[in-house]
Amino acid sequence: MTEHTIAAGAYAPEANANAHLEDLTPEGRVNDPVHLKTEILAKLAYSVGKDPISANSNDWLTATILVVRDHIVDRWMATTRDNYRAEKKRVYYLSLEFLIGRLMRDAMNNLDLTSGIKEALAELNVDIDFIRELEPDAALGNGGLGRLAACFMESMATVGVPAYGYGIRYDHGLFRQAIEDGAQMEYPEEWLSFGNPWEFQRKESSYSIGFGGTVEVTKDWDGATTSTWKPAENVMAIAYDTPVVGWRGEKVNTLRLWRARSTVPIKLDLFNSGDHLGALSESNRAESISRVLYPADSSSSGQELRLRQEFFFTSASVQDILRRHLQQYNTLDNLADKVSMQLNDTHPALAVAELMRVLVDHHNMKWDEAWAITNGVISYTNHTLLPEALETWPVNLIERMLPRHMQIIYAINARLLEHVKAAGMDDGTISAVSLIGEQGSRHVRMGNLAFVGAHKVNGVAGLHSYLMKQTVFKELHSVFPDRITNKTNGVTPRRWLMEANPALTALLRETIGDGFMDDTEKLKDLIPFAQDPVFRAKFAEVKQSNKARLAQLIHDRVGVKVDPTAMFDVQVKRIHEYKRQLLNILETIALYNEIRANPHKNWVPRVKVFAGKAAASYWQAKSIIHLINDVGSVVNNDPSVRDLLKVVFIPNYNVSAAEIIMPGADLSEQISTAGLEASGTGNMKFGLNGALTIGTLDGANVEMLEHVGAANIKIFGMTAQEVEALRIKGYSSREVIEATPALKEVLEGIAGGTFSPNDQHRYQGLVDMMWNSDHFLVAADFQAYWNAQREMDVLWHNQDAWQTQAILNTANMGWFSSDRTIREYAEEIWNVPTN
């Protein structure tokens, strides 16, 4: 395009559709407001079809996104051509979740377009901050696993790893959470109501995914057998691509999400006969696969749908990977040299069987050759130490839905057990490593399948990786002692510092320069300023402004006014018993009791902030949410507390809410039962934004302790080793509660209906669990947690000391960048170079 064309106001990217690709470069566009304004108007007219006079806010949002997308596409095509020409090895990241959130601010920041577009829109009388809030959150994930996948995609582009992310394009994603009378209610998340201007539908990239049917075995001329799967049902997987731009816009990777469609959209004969619902039954069955993230699996039909989802996206991804590879190289012999497939948790574990099926059945490879390739291609990230969280599927369900894959799993297992027996392992080890669990009904252990099929298996924090070898994969580790490695998680500093906390970013740039923006380890240059009273005051001022923003969010979402000068004590994450939101709310009730009993004590004003979603069928977690809200209703309306304590639960926690919550927190709650949290990434986001951590020695808290120093983090409670020793010894929660008067009083109050006067027995199940089992050791750690919280009270009264520690947390969090994590994956697992 020429300067003359732009000046004449005729610039529209569509006009360049026939330009030679070699001339389409990132330097082909100009980022100044004048040109950006022209681009926005062109998009508004020719893509949205609106005149500026009649355009509404969503029209302006769409036009702006399309302009940003055009700037990304230039770099996307350049990156793709470079990868093909250089024959670079590609990484394929398979994840059932990608919690990407809103994309516009992220993309503008990485392309250095923010100021130019803001000015261009201002000249058009459009408020960028207003329209940015209209962009829906893509709720394609539940929590840390999905947000990690999103961070990794951005970091892979940033450090120059050629990558595709593969997942499902859910129509509704995870449910929209509402709180009604204190209880969680689930509603569809309508993130696609106005379409998705970021994506490109790729109708040419569609694949048939089979289910059910039979396996036919034929003999070849040389006596060898060939297996052919004849599915009874086929569903089409349609690709939708979203470009993911890295920092400075130098590289762009692809997030490819699959949408399920029927091969027969409507049965016209049934429709014309009057059976209008029956005519759509096949289409509805197919489309249900990509309708909702994590459908409840408490029923057999729910289990089947979950398995269909996992195989659907895994099979489509494997087919797409092999198609792309063969298109470029015309051979599969070098597949392991050019392809690395990372399984994010066990959800895509069927990739092991699916890749073997395609190689053996479709490409006529011998088993050993196919297995060597499969093992060389696949690596697996484990995210849990909870045995019940390692997926298993009934053998009869897989045999019915995926008969050929069940045969392959049996064959893999037979060879594995032969190897184990030959090595002289005992029966206990043989039983533990088997891909087939025999306890109760026979089931396939997806964690074992992923472990055996991968050449590397990684945990996501040092302690987690160590405990994998001691617990869930102890026996497999003894068989494959070099397979487990550690890759401690990280978060992208672009979204979680530069975008979420622009005021702190500006202060850091003013104080230590811009170096940290390209290398977060340079945040250490901030350390000397922790002792500077002037800087501490500026740092505290930034925090206060962020707290005011969080206070506004709380008022808007919950209707509760909170004091921004109070300590904001925050626990936001998926609601689960092992994460121990229950411990937090029980200590909150004990604090409430103490404030009422000793009203003239020098209490620290606190705002207890909770947020997170409970799985729709997880009764205990939903009961904890209800308790938090009931406690808030009582505490927040008790005049005797004098606003010294507020309890709020922010509904529908998502990425956009987190971007406001993380910078506004003073105290970060990371209080899981030691040995059960794989890593955590919220702990890193809070620390990066200058919150102090109160937590157990669990997950990545261990590395945080090492990096920020024991003086700047509050660790309490039992260690993982002490937890294990207590379980072996035998634990009586009743004895502990009887010996802890404050906790006993709390439980008696809950059981007596103090917080649920209209339903006195509402929390009987929670209270009985505490007295009789307390599997997650809430009572055992209660007193230590109470004591640690009172130490934080003392520290809060000394704001110079508090701000010093907060600054040192920010300064020492640079190591927890997802760029560092990805470089470690690239070097030690994927064998791909980085920039």
Automatic annotation (TrEMBL):
PROSITE patterns: PHOSPHORYLASE. InterPro entries: Glycg_phsphrylas, Glyco_trans_35, Pyridoxal_P_attach_site. GO terms for molecular function: glycogen phosphorylase activity; pyridoxal phosphate binding. It is an enzyme of class 2 (transferase). The modification N6-(pyridoxal phosphate)lysine is found at residue 685. The keyword Cytoplasm applies. Keywords: Allosteric enzyme, Carbohydrate metabolism, Cytoplasm, Glycosyltransferase, Pyridoxal phosphate, Transferase. Its cofactor is pyridoxal 5'-phosphate. The keyword Acetylation does not apply. Its EC number is 2.4.1.1. Its main location: cytoplasm. It catalyses: [(1->4)-alpha-D-glucosyl](n) + phosphate = [(1->4)-alpha-D-glucosyl](n-1) + alpha-D-glucose 1-phosphate. It holds the Pfam family Phosphorylase. GO terms for biological process: glycogen catabolic process. It is found in: Cytoplasm. Phosphorylase is an important allosteric enzyme in carbohydrate metabolism. Enzymes from different sources differ in their regulatory mechanisms and in their natural substrates. However, all known phosphorylases share catalytic and structural properties. Belongs to the glycogen phosphorylase family. This is Alpha-1,4 glucan phosphorylase. It comes from Ephemeroptericola cinctiostellae. The lineage of its organism: Bacteria, Pseudomonadati, Pseudomonadota, Betaproteobacteria, Burkholderiales.
